[in-house]
Design goal:
The complex is a heterodimer of chains A (116) and B (109). With 116 residues, chain A is mostly beta strands. In chain A, 0% of the residues lie in helices and 51% in strands. Chain A contains no helices and eleven strands. In chain A, the strands form two sheets. In chain A, strands 2, 4, 5, 6, 9, 10 and 11 form a seven-stranded mixed sheet that branches. Chain A has a four-stranded antiparallel sheet with strand order 1-3-8-7, with no helix packed on it. Chain A is globular, with a radius of gyration of 13 Å. The N and C termini of chain A lie far apart (37 Å). Chain B has 109 residues and is mainly β. In chain B, a hairpin with a 5-residue loop joins strand 9 and strand 10. Chain B is built from no helices and eleven strands. In chain B, the strands form two sheets. In chain B, strands 2, 4, 5, 9, 10 and 11 form a six-stranded mixed sheet that branches. Chain B has a five-stranded antiparallel sheet with strand order 1-3-8-7-6, with no helix packed on it. The chains are: A mainly beta (116), B mainly beta (109).
Chain lengths: 116, 109
């Protein structure tokens, strides 16, 4: 149980295009979903927290207009990287919490984004 | 800025060896420490959530201890097996979770 999927697993795009990443909880309802980013040799860093049906809360330094998050249902959250640039190339990983807190987070396998 | 340090960054051990690595975190305002196991191309998997000073938790051959007064946690693997090869992450519970960079373990058969 408690499986979270992410799609796509890998994406390469041209600079200036937008990329959408999906995060789905397959066998539970996720009150809260978290989006993280990991640059090479760095830690996972939280970008934003999204609760179903409400606006996402972004961490300091993360541009909400650039990283659009939609959490329209209890099993799906999407992250759209708008007008991607090479510096947005990173590993993006989501996690989902059935209880809404950090104590119980189930992670997806991540998405490797490369912007040319 | 909260700092969570993990050491070593990577290590190689022979199958059957026991090993351990460290997570250091701020000793003030402690709430919880999380350990995750992350195999390549898979999702991070929760191992332990540790909350009390002196806590010791065990899951099969893997165990963890916690010292909140001095700000460290140890993860031990007894009799390492190739399938233990993974990156082990710790995360300090704050708002948000603050992750270390991980310890990459390779177990050589």
């Amino acid at each position: 149980g408690a499986v979270v999927s992410q799609h796509p697993s890998r994406v390469i795009c041209k600079s200036g295009t937008s990329v959408k990443i999906e995060c789905r909880s397959l066998d539970f309802q996720a009150t809260t979903m978290f989006w993280y980013r990991q640059f090479p040799k760095q830690s996972l860093m939280l970008m934003a927290t999204s609760n179903e049906g409400s606006k996402a809360t972004y961490e300091q330094g993360v541009e909400k207009d650039k990283f659009l998050i939609n959490h329209a249902s209890l099993t799906l959250s999407t992250l759209t990287v708008t007008s991607a640039h090479p510096e947005d190339s990173s590993f993006y990983i989501c996690s989902a919490s059935p209880s809404g807190g950090y104590n119980e987070q189930f992670f997806g396998p991540g998405t490797r984004l490369t912007v040319l | 800025i909260l700092n969570v340090e993990q050491s070593p960054q990577s290590l190689h051990v022979q199958e059957g060896d026991s090993t351990n690595f460290t997570c250091s975190f701020p000793s003030s305002n402690f709430y919880a420490l999380h350990w995750y196991r992350w195999e390549t191309a898979k999702s991070p998997e929760a191992l332990f959530v540790m909350t009390l000073n002196g806590d010791e938790k065990k899951k099969g051959r893997i165990s963890a201890t916690l010292n909140t007064k001095e700000g460290y946690s140890y993860l031990y693997i007894k009799g390492s097996q190739p399938e233990d090869s993974a990156t082990y992450l710790c995360a300090f519970r704050n708002t948000p979770l603050v992750f270390g960079k991980g310890t990459r373990l390779s177990v050589i058969a």
